[in-house]
């Protein structure tokens, strides 16, 4: 990633801040001593931090007018600077590209280096933040929905500083990207979604703080999750199963963010029954936790049976469509295989699918 960004040549316009929280930083120091780079600003804190605290220090150590956060297995493209210039011209506080994901060869057994993306267009879409919040509340906060994620988008520092002034942190929740996204929705009324390769999310076996392997697994022993706040069990919402999993930690982070903003009224709008339905479907071994919290256990039982049947038949239909189609798709996104690393991915995008100039001529009237 360091070599990648340094090779873009944006010496004065782009700042790469590396916030390291590993116990041993000797390897990265050796890397820096063997290479000369123009962009990186490196900071290291050896003391144990939560993921949110580490990201918080990263933003505080940055100086740019606009900020984008990435993880240890993600990457940005050279179009990031073009995107920010376009944002400034159009006075936009937040821009979020359609999701692009690269699963490296080591992501899972049999992975062939897959790039997941939708074909790029010149479409520029305004999204109302109140509608985004309503949508995730209705669905029980089981996924990120259309939330404006700093994790794969670009946000003005002015917007982020409003969050820090109010909450004391840029990330007022156990899952930093979710808590920050909810906060952004409470700061701005609208944001823009574009179809452009600005940030590419990675998904290696050890990425995401070492917890990607838990995607469809749950963890009841919070001591094994040092990336979470130490008091997480004490502050955990009583309406959410007390267990670490994707949907529960996302929902918990939404609740924490709303509490930080003093918006307990919005917590009442969350459909927790939808959370229980999803939890039973994907974490069946722990289904008792959801049934104990449900206010309508018979409905939850019936919905669970229906969801299992739907999942089974939808899987059959998907496999049939995949065999009949010449192209491979996953969740509506095109899948292209055969990439060894991000450099090959960027080379492919440059040759085949995208030039930011296609969208640069678009001027938005606020």
Automatic annotation (TrEMBL):
Pfam families, per database record: Glycos_transf_2 (PF00535)
Keyword vocabulary terms for this entry: Transferase
InterPro entries: Glyco_trans_2-like, Nucleotide-diphossugar_trans
Name of the protein in question: Glycosyl transferase family 2
Keyword Manganese recorded: no
Entry superkingdom: Bacteria
Domain Glycosyltransferase 2-like as annotated: residue spans: 14-101
GO molecular function: transferase activity
């Amino acid at each position: 990633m360091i070599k990648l960004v340094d090779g873009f040549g944006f010496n004065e316009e782009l700042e790469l801040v590396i916030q390291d929280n590993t116990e041993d930083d000797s390897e990265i120091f050796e890397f820096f001593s063997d290479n000369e780079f123009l962009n990186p600003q490196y900071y290291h804190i050896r003391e144990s931090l939560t993921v949110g605290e580490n990201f918080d220090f990263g933003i505080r150590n940055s100086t740019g007018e606009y900020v984008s956060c990435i993880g240890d297995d993600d990457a940005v493209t050279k179009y990031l600077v073009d995107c920010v210039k376009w944002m400034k011209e159009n006075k936009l506080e937040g821009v979020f590209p359609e999701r692009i994901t690269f699963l490296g060869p080591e992501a899972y057994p049999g992975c062939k280096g897959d790039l997941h993306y939708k074909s790029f267009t010149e479409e520029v879409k305004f999204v109302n933040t109140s509608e985004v919040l309503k949508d995730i509340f209705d669905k029980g906060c089981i996924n990120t929905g259309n939330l404006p994620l700093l994790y794969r988008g670009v946000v003005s520092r002015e917007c982020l500083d409003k969050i820090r002034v109010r909450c004391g942190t840029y990330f007022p929740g156990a899952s930093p990207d979710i808590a920050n996204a909810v906060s952004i929705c409470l700061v701005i009324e609208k944001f823009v979604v574009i179809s452009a390769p600005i940030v590419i999310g990675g998904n290696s076996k050890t990425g995401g703080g070492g917890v990607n392997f838990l995607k469809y697994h749950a963890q009841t022993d919070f001591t094994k999750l040092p990336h979470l706040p130490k008091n997480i069990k004490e502050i955990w919402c009583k309406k959410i199963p007390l267990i670490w999993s994707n949907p529960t930690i996302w929902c918990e982070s939404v609740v924490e963010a709303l509490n930080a903003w003093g918006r307990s009224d919005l917590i009442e709008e969350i459909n927790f029954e939808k959370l229980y339905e999803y939890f039973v479907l994907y974490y069946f071994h722990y289904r008792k936790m959801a049934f104990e919290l449900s206010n309508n256990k018979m409905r939850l039982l019936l919905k669970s049976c229906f969801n299992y049947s739907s999942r089974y038949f939808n899987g059959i239909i998907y496999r049939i469509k995949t065999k009949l189609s010449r192209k491979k798709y996953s969740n509506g996104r095109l899948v292209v295989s055969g990439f060894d690393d991000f450099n090959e991915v960027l080379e492919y995008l440059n040759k085949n699918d995208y030039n930011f100039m296609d969208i640069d001529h678009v001027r938005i009237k606020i």
